[in-house]
Amino acid sequence: MNERFFEPFVDAVDGVMCVSAAADAADIAGQSAPHGLRFPLLLQGDVPLSEQVAASAFAPASSRFGPYCDNITGMNWELPDGRRVRIGERVVKSTTGYDLLRFLIGTGTRFGRPLDYVLRLRPACDGGGMFSLHGSPESLETAAAEILRSSFLHWFESVDWIGGNGEPWLRVGVHCPQMEWTVFADFLSSLAERHGLTLQTAPGDGQVIDGLPDLVLKTAPDRVIPLARKIANDSGVRCIALCYCAAVHVYLPDGSNFLERITTLVEPEAISLNAIGGDWHSRHVEPPNPCAEESAWIETLEKEWSIPA
Q: Using alpha carbons only, what angle is made at residue 219 by residues 232 and 281, rounded to the nearest 5 degrees?
């Protein structure tokens, strides 16, 4: 490593930090919290950040902050032959030509591995919490659609439909100044009353730690809850529909034959997902072979980086 590579840092002015890809939630919070900052896109507290990024492009707070690829501005990356390269910048916006950063984030370990990430941080507030709405499945879906159309949407840390363990319910997370908590509570209380739902509140920081999903299905916003409900009802597994980003996180029981279970879940949905430009991903399954156009580009990249085909 030399001055051309990212070194560990926290920049409280620009709101970015560089941490090891092996860092976990405690490591990140320990460095960012003293500056009044936080990294909201975490799936599990004790798992290295690189494993969280590989498990899903989305976390519950993607409802507010976008996917992982929009919150990682740069990386130190090790190629398969041991060479190390710096990719991206320490600023949120830059003009760097082809977006190799996002490409590598989404390719797992095929083209090497991340060594360090430059993360985009967010201000830490002194209040927030979690709202849960309970009622009929139809009312929950209608309420979720109304939340997504509301002016409150981009204040919500998460808007998630939860199913598979008992009756489904809707989860809304908020991270805000304490003095603003009642604004969100009043909005959701009114919404719950209109749709005949029961509203429960739990103060906290609004962040959700669900764990690493075993399967992720990317669909369209108007189909995400029906898809999650179908999988949960048909298979009995826990499903979380991240409503804004239209991603379904599926959690399989410990001891599952993951390949067999995932194949069973994906096969009935693959054609309809593909028809609308959707996709699926699992940390337990090798990605499918690329199409002809992608294969030609990847072959060129492998030759450039001296990667065996």
A: 75
Q: pLDDT truncated to tens, each residue of the chain (309 aa)? A: 445 899 999 999 999 999 999 999 999 999 999 999 999 999 999 999 999 999 999 999 999 999 999 999 999 999 888 889 999 888 766 555 557 888 888 887 888 999 999 999 999 999 999 999 999 999 999 999 999 999 999 899 999 999 997 899 999 999 999 999 999 999 999 999 999 999 999 988 888 899 999 999 999 999 999 999 999 999 999 999 999 999 999 999 988 899 999 999 999 999 999 999 999 999 999 877 777 777 887 788 777 777 766
Give yes or no for a contact between 111 and 96, defined as CB atoms under 8 angstroms apart: no
Query: Structural domain boundaries of the chain?
Result: 9-123, 127-203
SS3 letters for 211-273? CCCCEEEECCCCCHHHHHHHHHHHHCCEEEEECCCCEEEEECCCCCCHHHHHHHHHHHHHHHH
**Domain 9-123 in CATH 3.30.465.10:** yes
> From residue 295, how far is each of 100, 162, 204 by CA, in Å?
16, 38, 47
CATH number of 127-203: 3.30.70.600
Candidates 252, 251, 247; CA nearest to 279 is 247
pTM above 0.85, yes or no: yes
Contacts of 205 (CB under 8 A, 6+ apart): 128, 129, 175
